[in-house]
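Course exercise 7: structure representation. Students receive a sequence record and must write out the corresponding structure in token form. The form below is the worked example handed out in class, using SDR family oxidoreductase (249 residues). Read each field label carefully; the graders check that inputs and outputs are placed in the correct fields and that the protein name is recorded exactly as given.

STUDENT ID: A-19
EXERCISE PROTEIN: SDR family oxidoreductase
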Amino acid sequence: MSNKLTGKVAIVTGGTRGIGAAAARALADQGADVAISYGKSAEQAEAVVRELQAKGVRAAAFKADQADPSSAEELVKAVVERFGRLDILVNNAGVTVFAPIDNPENNVADFDRQLNINFNSPVAAIRAAIKVMGEGGRIISMGSGVGTRTGFSGLADYTATKSAIAGYSRGAARDLAAKGITINILQAGFVDTEMNPADGPFASHFNATTALGRFARPEEIAAGIVFLASPEASYVTGTVLNIDGGYGA
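STUDENT ANSWER:
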């Protein structure tokens, strides 16, 4: 195990599967103690925690409703009480709702939920985290390739939320620079997860839009998260890092 992040404490929201779980593992591999949040499956969350603890770091799972922005501050508070500090925040939890804007079945509740999970809760977590982060703090929020290049119909609302968190982070980078805290966006392309498997019904269509012609493995995205969280990224802030297989090329 490397000691690059030894002594650091990280939060990964939505850390029970996919990119979130891969990020939690990768941070732990670098020596960080890791807290993950989950919405429903306590059993799945505890399985990830046991896996992280087996790497020789401290780990814990916290239930948090990402659709409720107020839960973000409660999560940060609980993690600091448990671990004593917070150095790295990974806003990973997200949701995608496919629906053209002229779909008569669209409703405000669906839009509000997507906005809360993808934008309002990450912003609330950022505002809570910076109260307790010191010099060298790292904030990484998950964006999406479609945040800057939609490419598909039915994603206007989702694109808006991901564009919003990217814009917010670029602006916040200026505000947080004096505190020595960096804030960046990682825009992933198509990733092989339970929600969007590489052998799914739309995979061939998605693959045709990328230069590499394949889905990413969650570990490939997690590598970018670890870089942005690391000492080597001390001069990187307000940046959008695309790990999208050439989707935006």
